[in-house]
From TrEMBL, chain A:
<feature type="transmembrane region" description="Helical">
    <location>
        <begin position="93"/>
        <end position="112"/>
    </location>
</feature>
<keyword id="KW-0812">Transmembrane</keyword>
<dbReference type="InterPro" id="IPR001851">
    <property type="entry name" value="ABC_transp_permease"/>
</dbReference>
<feature type="transmembrane region" description="Helical">
    <location>
        <begin position="227"/>
        <end position="246"/>
    </location>
</feature>
<keyword id="KW-0472">Membrane</keyword>
<feature type="transmembrane region" description="Helical">
    <location>
        <begin position="176"/>
        <end position="197"/>
    </location>
</feature>
<feature type="transmembrane region" description="Helical">
    <location>
        <begin position="301"/>
        <end position="322"/>
    </location>
</feature>
<keyword id="KW-1133">Transmembrane helix</keyword>
<feature type="transmembrane region" description="Helical">
    <location>
        <begin position="69"/>
        <end position="87"/>
    </location>
</feature>
UniProtKB/TrEMBL annotation, chain B:
<feature type="transmembrane region" description="Helical">
    <location>
        <begin position="228"/>
        <end position="249"/>
    </location>
</feature>
<keyword id="KW-0812">Transmembrane</keyword>
<feature type="transmembrane region" description="Helical">
    <location>
        <begin position="261"/>
        <end position="278"/>
    </location>
</feature>
<keyword id="KW-1003">Cell membrane</keyword>
<keyword id="KW-0813">Transport</keyword>
<dbReference type="InterPro" id="IPR052157">
    <property type="entry name" value="BCAA_transport_permease"/>
</dbReference>
<keyword id="KW-0472">Membrane</keyword>
<dbReference type="GO" id="GO:0022857">
    <property type="term" value="F:transmembrane transporter activity"/>
</dbReference>
<feature type="transmembrane region" description="Helical">
    <location>
        <begin position="41"/>
        <end position="58"/>
    </location>
</feature>
Length: 349, 287
């Protein structure tokens, strides 16, 4: 007898290692400084955005340049929930996911009529339209932006418990809460994508990625698949956006809908790490952060270097750093390939 | 007669957008390349012209003439050394490379020229206007529009009446077959990008003389230019002019209703055209 499996020894080892890292990550605020927590928050949110964009472009073939629409709208939905509806910021994050999902429906309806380059530009224009419309909402600060009111940030759900637990000030407790939520979100998104790729849907996605016509000919409903991927990605991006601006507690249309921050850097992370793999964005975000730390004192030189590195990687290692490592070592930390296990070959000529 | 004034100003503004877009239209039409750095290249050219004016004491027109061959060389080199390597069926590699170039250019310019907004001094032309009875039009917008027409006539002449243009069209229709006929597509692409950069320099001259610019304004110009190209349809330069005019008129009309709606109205016009005609109004080439 034989069976179909995606399990490998490296995969199981990774799962155990990841579990240990997650547990350590949850306990980390007890032993580390606020600066480290803020850095980790940044890494985790960028990782989440990168995994989502990788799902869209690397698997779904949807090269969107307009993900900042969902980051921005999600963030503004959080602020609207807190400022206009008087919600606690933590449940208001869910409102952000919902708002992004609602925006994604007309966006997909429109953008899916467009092909290739037109799709990319179309999504960007929709993001611009969303930014301009949001900038006209005077109740949310208009073009200049707005801060979360003190009474809303001073007693966010759970911060009292965190203050008591770690003996920290209120601002630090808010950072820890945001960090925990970012950790949960990053794990949920990465784990969710891993699970998705190993399911039947993932098999269909991989087929679409490799050849749309061939996938269609064996019965994959490509249109439905793209809708599903786009909507899931939009909702998750909205949640991430809300979290990012919950941590900064201040928002403006230019920051929330920045194409460089929420799309260009995210694309760089995915491509430098390796598109079409789960390992790629993880490696990419670490490289991105290392560069940022190393070149932090050089202002715009850092961004210039990042742009040039992305070009060099695309020219000479189009599968990214993880592609290089994986090709040399044959290593897959998150195996999604189906293999036959328990097969005994007997007889033959 | 306010609506007539709005219409005329909108059409003239469309000339500027068509000028932004003409180079992009050429490159996009011939090799389907999405150059996300196009707007930043316009800004780079504007700084080149500005340096000619401030450092060498040239008039803006002469400075633009000096900058044109430099930009041609830059475009040729960019295409031959970088972009030719990533062209293919997959749009992601060129998209990423030009995104990288865009970020690198923006920050390079920021480092070299600071974030201060600058302007190319145009002397008496700056405030000059012509009274046409019903409406008054600025001399600068009129010259911009005339230059856009001239650029498109010149490009079309090149496209339809020269051997190089034949090579452009052949490569646009089918690069592989064109290759069999003795055309070197990569060579053709490099020349095309070089020519696009010459048009970019012309666009930069007007961009810099008409309004202030700084290193961060590239992406917005890129979006207007792309909208004009897509509205017009792939491979049609007159279509690009029509696209530019549609966006220009929509923006001026939007601004006449409410200043906050200017940019928004242009985008809405683009989205509407895309909903009705996803391939643009006058598509010539097939994607």
């Amino acid at each position: 007898m034989y069976r179909l499996t995606t399990r490998t020894r490296a995969g199981t080892a990774t799962e155990i290692a990841v579990l240990v890292v997650i547990l350590a990550g949850l306990a980390l605020p007890a032993v580390t400084t606020r600066g480290v927590i803020q850095d980790l928050f940044f890494i985790l949110t960028m990782l989440t955005l990168a995994q989502i964009w990788n799902l869209l472009a690397g698997y779904g073939g949807l090269v969107s340049v307009g993900q900042q629409a969902f980051v921005g709208l999600g963030a503004y939905a959080l602020f609207a929930g807190v400022i206009l509806l008087d919600w606690d910021p933590v449940p208001a994050i869910l409102l952000a996911g919902l708002a992004a999902l609602v925006l994604a429906i007309p966006t997909a309806f429109f953008a899916f009529r467009l092909q290739g380059a037109y799709f990319a530009i179309g999504t960007w224009v929709i993001a611009e339209v969303t930014r301009l419309l949001v900038a006209q909402r005077k109740a949310l600060g208009g073009g200049t932006g707005i801060s979360l009111p003190r009474e809303a940030t001073s007693n966010i759900m759970g911060t009292d418990a965190i203050r008591a637990l770690f003996g920290v000030r209120e601002a630090a407790a808010r950072d820890i809460l945001a960090y925990w939520l970012a950790l949960v979100l990053a794990v949920a998104v990465t784990g969710g994508i891993y699970w998705l790729l190993r399911s039947r849907l993932g098999l269909a996605l991989a087929a679409v990625r490799d050849n749309v016509d061939a996938a269609q000919s064996v019965g994959v409903d490509v249109a439905r698949l793209k809708w599903a991927v786009f909507l899931i990605a939009a909702a998750a991006t909205g949640l991430t956006g809300a979290l990012i601006f919950l941590q900064t507690a201040r928002i403006s249309p230019d920051a929330a809908f920045a194409v460089t921050d929420w799309t260009a850097y995210v694309i760089f992370i995915v491509v430098i790490g390796g598109i079409g793999t789960i390992e790629g964005p993880i490696l990419g975000v670490l490289v991105f952060f290392a560069l940022r730390s190393a070149l932090a004192d050089y202002g715009s030189w850092y961004l210039m270097t990042l742009g040039l590195i992305a070009i060099v990687v695309m020219l000479f290692a189009p599968k990214g750093l993880w592609g290089l490592i994986s090709a040399r070592s044959g290593l897959h930390l998150f195996p999604v390939r189906r293999r036959l296990a328990g097969l005994k070959i007997e007889g033959g000529i | 007669m306010i609506w007539l004034d709005t219409l005329v100003q909108g059409i003239l503004l469309g000339g500027l957008y068509a000028l932004f877009a003409a180079g992009l239209s050429l490159v996009f039409g011939i090799m389907r390349l999405v150059n996300l750095a196009h707007g930043d290249l316009i800004v780079l050219a504007a700084y080149l012209v500005l340096m000619g004016v401030t450092l060498l004491g040239l008039s803006p027109w002469v400075a633009a003439l000096v900058a044109m061959p430099l930009m041609f060389a830059l475009g040729w080199l960019l295409q031959a050394a970088v972009l030719n390597r990533v062209l293919g069926k997959d749009i992601l590699p060129p998209l990423l490379v030009t995104f990288g170039l865009s970020v690198a250019l923006q920050n390079g310019l920021l480092e070299a020229f600071s974030a201060d907004s600058r302007r190319i001094p145009a002397g008496t032309l700056e405030g000059a206007s012509l009274d046409l009875g019903q409406v008054t039009v600025g001399v600068m917008p009129l010259m911009t529009f005339a230059s856009a027409i001239a650029a498109i006539v010149a490009l079309n002449g090149l496209f339809y009446h020269t051997a190089l243009g034949r090579a452009f069209r052949a490569t646009s229709d089918d690069a592989v077959t064109a290759g069999l006929m003795g055309i070197e597509p990569k060579q053709v692409f490099a020349v095309a990008t070089g020519i696009a950069m010459v048009v970019v320099t012309l666009a930069a001259l007007y961009l810099g003389m008409r309004a202030n610019f700084d290193p961060s304004i590239g992406p917005a110009r890129l979006i207007y230019a792309f909208e004009a190209v897509i509205i017009g349809g792939l491979g049609s330069l007159w279509g690009t002019l029509a696209g530019g005019i549609i966006i220009g008129v929509a923006q001026t009309a939007g601004a006449a209703v409410n200043p906050e709606w200017q940019i928004l109205a242009g985008h809405i016009a683009f989205l509407t055209v895309m909903l009705l005609k996803p391939r643009g109004l006058f598509p010539r080439a097939v994607d």
